[in-house]
């Protein structure tokens, strides 16, 4: 991530905003790209005064919302064969197991999977195409997509910006520590959402295994 931040710092601010929107947008269409790394790196640059946080957040939100919408349209048109092709092209990220897990999340949580998916790497990539392939009503999808994109983009950017500025003031002689604090804060911005998702998944697994145990006791 430090390499990404260093590379972005050499570019004009306008180009940085375009890269943020582009990488996050393409990732949201269903192509595995490091969207969250680009956002975190750009937010840290904003804390250093290289770019403006409001434009970083706006670019990230637009990329997320537009990219997910395009992914939705592609998924609705291509359907499950499209997901199968994506799985063959990116087996590590979008293989049958990953797609099955994402489908299970949609079946259980509906459009909330789109909102919470913005904070989870797998669902962030698959939310748009999968919602389209499953024929989720677009209005409901757009509402959850926009809400998740805005909360994720502005929340992550401004949390990192605030913590980064504080770290810069308080830890001037320990820049490495300031960077570490900023990175940890950025990860913490999505921690409770991911923990919730994991707890729900664990509860579902336990519920599925309960009939098996009950049958074996008879």
Could you explain the architecture of this structure?
Belongs to the DedA family. Residues 41-159 form the VTT domain. Its main location: membrane. It is found in: Cell membrane. Keywords: Cell membrane, Membrane, Transmembrane, Transmembrane helix. This protein has 218 residues and is an all-alpha fold. The chain has one domain (2-217). Helices cover 85% and strands 0% of the residues. It is built from 11 helices and no strands. The longest helix has 37 residues, at 53-89. The N and C termini lie far apart (55 Å). The mean pLDDT is 79.
List keywords for this structure.
218 residues; mainly alpha; 11 helices; globular
Give a short summary of the structure.
The protein has 218 residues and is mainly α. 85% of the residues lie in helices and 0% in strands. It has one domain.
Total count of strands: 0
Question: How far do the termini sit from each other?
Answer: 55 Å
Total of domains: 1
Helices, by number, come to: 11
Overall shape: globular
Structural class, by secondary structure, is: mainly alpha
| Poorly predicted runs | none
Q: What's the order of the H and E elements?
A: HHHHHHHHHHH
Residue share in β-strands: under 5%
Radius of gyration: 19 Å
User: Mean pLDDT score, rounded?
Assistant: 79
- Biggest β-sheet strands, sense, barrel: none
Please bin the fraction of helical residues.
over 70%
């Amino acid at each position: 991530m430090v390499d990404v931040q260093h590379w972005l710092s050499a570019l004009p601010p306008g180009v940085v905003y375009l890269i943020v929107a582009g990488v996050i947008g393409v990732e949201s269409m269903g192509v595995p790209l490091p969207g969250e790394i680009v956002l975190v790196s750009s937010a840290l640059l904003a804390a250093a005064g290289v770019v403006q946080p409001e434009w970083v957040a706006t670019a990230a939100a637009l990329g997320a919302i537009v990219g997910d919408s395009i992914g939705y349209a592609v998924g609705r048109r291509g359907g499950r064969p499209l997901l199968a092709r994506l799985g063959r092209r990116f087996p590590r990220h979008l293989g049958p197991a990953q797609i099955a897990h994402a489908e299970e999340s949609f079946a259980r949580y509906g459009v909330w999977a789109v909102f919470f998916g913005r904070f989870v790497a797998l669902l962030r990539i698959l939310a748009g195409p999968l919602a389209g392939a499953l024929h989720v009503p677009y209005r409901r999808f757009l509402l959850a997509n926009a809400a998740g994109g805005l909360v994720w983009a502005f929340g992550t950017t401004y949390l990192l910006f605030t913590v980064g500025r504080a770290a810069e003031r308080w830890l001037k002689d320990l820049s490495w520590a300031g960077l570490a604090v900023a990175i940890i804060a950025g990860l913490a911005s999505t921690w409770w959402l991911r923990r919730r998702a994991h707890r729900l998944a664990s509860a579902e697994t336990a519920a599925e295994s309960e009939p098996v145990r009950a049958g074996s006791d008879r």
